[in-house]
Amino acid sequence: MRKSLLIMTLSMSSVLYAQQRKECVPIGLSCEHLQNPLGVDRPSPRLSWQLADKRQGAKQSAYQIMVDTDSMALVKNKPGIWNSGKQLNSDMLIHYKGRALKPQTKYFWKVLVWDKNGRPGTSSIASFETGMMGVEHWKGKWISDNHSIHEQPAPYFRRAFKAAKPIKSARAYIAVAGLYELSVNGEKIGDHRLDPMYTRFDKRTLYVVEDVTRQLQQGDNVLAVVLGNGWYNHQPLAVWDFDKAPWRDRPTFCLDLRIVYQDGSEETISSDQSWKTAAGPIRYNNIYTGEHYDARLEMPGWDMPTFDDSQWHTVRYRKPPSTNITSQQTVPIRLVRSYEPKSMKKINDSTYVFDMGQNMAGLTKIKMRGKAGTVVKIKHGERLHANGRLDQSNIDVYYRGNKELEPFQTDILTLSGKKEDEFMAKFGYKGFRYVEVSCSEPVVLEKSAVMAYFMHSDVRPIGQLKTSSALINGLWEATNNAYLSNLMGYPTDCPQREKNGWTGDGHLAIETAYYNFDGITVYEKWMADHRDEQQENGVLPDIIPTGGWGYGTANGLDWTSTIAIIPWQTYLFYGDASLLAECYDNIKRYVDYVDGISPSGLTTFGRGDWVPVKSQSNLELTSSVYFYVDARILASAAKMFGKTADQQKYEQLSQKIKDAINAKFLDTEKGIYSTGTQTELSVPLYWGVVPEAMKAKVAANLNSKVEETNFHLDVGVLGAKALLNALKENGYDETAYKVAVQDTYPSWGWWIVNGATTLLENWDLNATRDISDNHMMFGEIGGWFFKSIGGILPDPAQAGFKHVLLKPIFPKELKESSITYNSPYGKIVSSWKSNGNKVEYRVEIPANARATFYPPANIRNGKVIQLEAGRHDLNLELK
């Protein structure tokens, strides 16, 4: 009886202890901002986590990190690789500081935390796996087929081998100049598309690590690779000179398959001259135009061990495309959403048009039967002619190739005649809503013959918006659709006409990006592209990556300030200064270059307020403001990194620029800049150029200017970024809101009420140029809703939302809003309902963070309130 009682007491104690530990538990463990990544090349990777603790005032008083190659060592709390010891602080983003990491090695790690009361909690065990960590560790050779850049059929490769013993684990490390698809024993590996990402191939080549343990078998195996051209071997002509890229060559790859057997021994199967190659059914592939596939040339079982490859050819060695072969540490591109046709229209016996109901970037899959040799053209576009046929006139603008043999945004399938043929392009993507299928012979197609797949960098959604306004909800959804359509390992302008990484589009939309998606790894990759493209004198092209186009006369500050703005915003949103540190010297070279050509502090280096509604704004004013922004960011970064001399130098430079702008453009008597357009007033206000004593006057003039247009936009891209923020931050909440939800021309809402499912490139639906229907350069609106009706803002003094600035607005016309943002510390909720003159405001702040609420001007007796972690319900009264 006493023994049973003792067991019961111990059991109850264990339960109570477990419950106590569960009150505060580290969750969401990430390495390099990825979950359990493979191929980590950094010697000191970043480890981060969040805290699951719903109690009021929850916080972390200490942490301890443990790392080992044996997970059981962590279970026993006896790590041999790194034990940080108990660290008495609240940091949740830590650089690894243990023993030197070995290449191609799996490491396990966990975190212990102590809560506000000193009670411990333990995470589950996570892992990361190092990559090559240096080109010297590669065993494989770079191989290709024996053809030139002009050869059109894609090369297929295979290598048969035997695995003599039971397999414990296997990893394929594959570096490619071009694109690839890897299969093992007939099974495609992974769900990525367009690997590896587009880079400046002669400066940096990416490799991908694939876990192929499950696909390998003891006995006979075969590795199979198909290569695509991608941006490496751009064959057709376009105005961007893709075909003249200095790196251009026939696609090539290097592969190491590292096998660890159950007995602990290892073997590496590498790319060498034992591989064989042949052409196959992919007869042409181009990321810009389309893919041509002849189903009559399919090779059943070509990627299986039993296939007879005696008629295949030997490979040739190639020199590496660059000396910097580095791991692709970013979220992959995937097929994320599928769409069945909303409708199908039969034009005639051989032509059908499908409406997918959503403008998107991605691919179509077609399944059909027909006579052998029937040529099927699968044409993609955003618009229809009045007769129901596909209209590409708004996007087929810059292509200069052979439009008969290599039609724009068109895949070509030749039917086998033997079976139902299925085709989906491997090495490209299109921008489209409508699909026209035309055949050389009469065919019968059902609506189910075509499927569409929305494809993009598979960034995790972290922002959510829901309001009582259908227009706001639709605008937010359209903005996100446009953003994702233009995220393919780097942010692009449009997914059809250009696919270019326009720098201006990228930084103008960065806050929208970070409020809605966990995209840091994409931008870290893109900033590495910036560093590769920057010339010695500091100049950047305005499309990145580029094959050489873009180093012109207009690639100035309003566009290429990406080099400063994106690392700074990354720091604000993530509390991670790594990217800012990596880009510091590049920002400095860039600012120094502009300083050298702009001795007065003013510059005309830029493109100006691109695609304005009507009013033209002063180029020197807007470019000089961005010069000021870059100098301020550089001074702030210098202060952060303890570079005192640089801090002083660039603080003085930024003041010089600010004084020069105000001396030339500010009419202190009238309170206007230049001619007083919406852009000329909002840009200096938003970016902090206006002297404190003049802010109220300039803001009042901006408000009046907007009222003159009956709350409509009269801006281009620079004004669209600044206008709503300048109004909201200077006391004109209602004006800003009226502009944001305007639904007549010109406005964001005008697009939505006219049926747009993405954002457009031009305010005017009847414009004759700059008329892509899937563009992101006006995308600030999606982030502004988070900053305004949600009021969720980062504090530069405690970045990463360690301290949240809550500055919501409660517009009279809006009755309800719920906005959530999953910050690095966890979910922030800013939700409210209004009823008459009462506002019920609910706030949730994640553990280990805090917030300050700043009531808007229309709140009666509003007071600034300090909020700790947890839920807070505030009852407010409108004036």
UniProtKB/TrEMBL annotation:
**Start and end residues of each Alpha-L-rhamnosidase C-terminal domain:** 796-860
Has UniProt tagged this entry with the keyword Hydrolase? Answer: yes
List the source organism: Sphingobacterium puteale
List residues of the Alpha-L-rhamnosidase six-hairpin glycosidase domain.
462-789
Catalytic reaction annotation = Hydrolysis of terminal non-reducing alpha-L-rhamnose residues in alpha-L-rhamnosides
Enzyme Commission number, as recorded: 3.2.1.40
Cited InterPro entries: 6-hairpin_glycosidase_sf, 6hp_glycosidase-like_sf, Alpha_rhamnosid, Bac_rhamnosid6H, Bac_rhamnosid_C, Bac_rhamnosid_N, Galactose-bd-like_sf, Ig-like_fold
Occurrences of domain Bacterial alpha-L-rhamnosidase N-terminal (ranges): 165-336
Q: Which residues form the signal peptide?
A: none
**Protein name, as recorded:** alpha-L-rhamnosidase
